[in-house]
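Sharing a chain and its predicted structure for anyone who wants a worked example. Both blocks are below, sequence first, tokens second.
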Amino acid sequence: MEKNGSVAGHQKLRGKGDTHYPEVVCPSVGWTCCFLFTVFRLSVKDLSHSNKRRNDFQKKKRSLACGTIIAYLEYMPLNKTLVLKFPLPYLVLAGWFISLPVFAQQALPEDVPANNASTTNKTNETIQTPKVVPAEPEAQTPAVEHVSGSACLLGNHFGIPEPDAQSAANLLCSEIREQGVAVQGPYFSAIESDKVYRIEMDRLGSLIIAKLSYEKPAGTVVDSRRIELARIEEFPRAVNRLVRALLKHESIEETQQVDNLVELETESQRSISSQFFWGLGIDGAINIGEGSNDTSYGLDLTLQHQGPRFSIGGQARFMGGDMLLASFGVGGRFFVLPGNISPFIGANMNLYALEIDTAGTNYENGGLGAGVEIGVEALRLHDSRLGLAFRADFPFFNLNSNNLSSTANVDRSIYAIPIGMQLYYLF
């Protein structure tokens, strides 16, 4: 009976004049609203927690969609026009089923494939442990070479190119050997030795400071010498002075010579270049030849072209007294030492005019002759010179007398040899 009554009620509702269908419209609208709201909630919630609940998300959507379809199918036989009158819910359902794979794909991480959802879920829930980067092995200190005896070592050379520094070390070691010390090397890294000659170079702007130290043992400085160079190319000039000063316990200034000065030790051009000098001197002489020991004194004027070891030039002398002497000559000198003070020897050729008055008899003559000299010259590292020379003149002629003696039938002649001293100043 109830079933028949329900059918009759449905049939009444399906009457042609009644178009409200309350029993159909209300459930359909309610299910549709509930469905859309639930889908919205699930979509937002599950998409924000996609890495944890994606499987439940898909199950809930499928269950809810199936329930909604069953609800529509329950009322679908009531009126065949129901689908046509209410197409929106069916379109939503169709779109929802189509979009299920899309939502499921969006819920997965971008770098995980869709068919590995369950595996990805477990992986993401696992705590990621940071990677441990193995520590780099510490650089091992190179073994220090042990050298027996004396060694030559290249030390710090800040600002000096490595090839230049090694070349300087080679020159230094060779110079040490030349001065009588047996050394091994050069070495370019740390060593252990009982005796070490260490060369170090530092750059200060364009200035190069070269330092040679003697260490006994290595690392313990006993003595050192230092010289300043304007450029590295001056090191071959200075290496002899560094080694000599250290080995002979002299100062760098004491090793100065005409041919080893460096640029910073003189304000003008180095003295290794030859120079012209004018000179003025005071002379005195005495005759040691035949006749009386007549003396004379006077002045001389000199022009010299002088180098580190040799000089050539000309000289004019004018002397008076008991012996008159005038000479014009050219000659040369050899300097024994290259230092600031050096002895020298010299020789010259002259044109003489000589006159001697002995015991009332006058002897005179002129001609060629030769002279020799020995002396010492100072201030050779400067722009002027001061010297003292002893010289002897040997004329190639005799002095003749024109005075006739009552007992003599011929003119008498003598041979004179003037010797003297000269104090001169060159400028």
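Comments welcome. The chain is about 30% helix and 35% strand.
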